[in-house]
């Protein structure tokens, strides 16, 4: 799939004319249905935008979807969560990917131009992944850190790698006196929101600015655009540390996070475990499945710095052509096949059957 830039559209009626295009679709020719049945009669064009964390998964989802829907073209632009939500609200995309759900007050304020008047939105977790703390320190491949230490590193209270707070948790590791360069997202980011939400919940005395999507300038550090920008800055720097979707960690050093009395490495299984152990937020509609993550859980095997990335659409669309396309695409994404495709391509954690049972009625409500 080619991830190209979106052209924003002023008129809602223009959505049907937009292309959500895929190189995978164009190059594959006539697709062969995976179930051996006749080819799909579904056709049309969709535009989606949002979380860069979903980029690899969206590529895989589009390719898989088009094996049975060859006449549907899809273009997902990974502009970032904040931009994706804004694009969706403005009616320039039919759906959004976001590393957080809309806040209740944002939904109340509206408007959502792609949606039919007096209808709500549908949002649900579609992509679950740990957020890895990645670092580049010569001679060090892995570290163990607790939440207060992480908070102090990213707030600038700890400035060198051989600081006693780091050394005490990493006996036997030779830590240099190199200065720490903490790399953060320069754009508004749901990944930042999830990371700072962990810090605010697990280390409130050391991280006092709360859960925020825009990095506080008073903390300094180095800003980088998007997930790829953070990974590049950490990779090319000296004494750097940053946060990014774990699927992008590559060969960089990574941090095990203290949970209870143990240190837990990131994994899809550990990320899925904390989502299943967390409740839905109160005060939401039946089709708004926002998870209230328990960042302070001490359960064994739980990794607390997790990104839960949502898909967001309309309960009813102003342009009826979008309804069937979005419904079918969302259905594929949350299916066992769709979730496994994403796991294979991006290292994400497939949603559980219990969560799927909650999501299915929300997608079915799209009209």
CATH topology of the largest domain: D-Maltodextrin-Binding Protein, domain 2
Shape: elongated
- List the secondary-structure elements in sequence, H or E: HEHEHEHEEHHEHEHEEEHEHHH
Could you say how many structural domains there are in total? 2
Return the average pLDDT rounded to an integer. 88
Identify the CATH homologous superfamily of the largest domain.
Answer: Periplasmic binding protein-like II
First-residue to last-residue Cα separation:
27 Å
Give the tally of β-strands: 11
Q: From the 3D coordinates, which CATH architecture of the largest domain would you assign?
A: 3-Layer(aba) Sandwich
Provide the β-strand percentage band: 15-25%
Helix content: 25-40%
Radius of gyration: 21 Å
Oligomeric organization of the protein chains: single chain
Main beta sheet, described? Answer: 11 strands, mixed
> Can you count the helices?
12
Task: Give me the secondary-structure category.
Answer: alpha/beta
Pick out the low-confidence regions.
1-38
Can you put this structure into words, describing what you see?
By secondary structure, the protein is α/β, with parallel strands linked by helices. The chain has two domains: 12-129 and 307-364, D-Maltodextrin-Binding Protein, domain 2 (3-Layer(aba) Sandwich), CATH 3.40.190.10; 130-273, D-Maltodextrin-Binding Protein, domain 2 (3-Layer(aba) Sandwich), CATH 3.40.190. Helices cover 32% and strands 20% of the residues. It is built from twelve helices and eleven strands. It is elongated and about 60 Å long. Mean pLDDT is 88; it is low at 1-38. One of its GO terms (cellular component) is ATP-binding cassette (ABC) transporter complex. GO terms for molecular function: phosphate ion binding. Belongs to the PstS family. Residues 1-24 form the signal peptide.
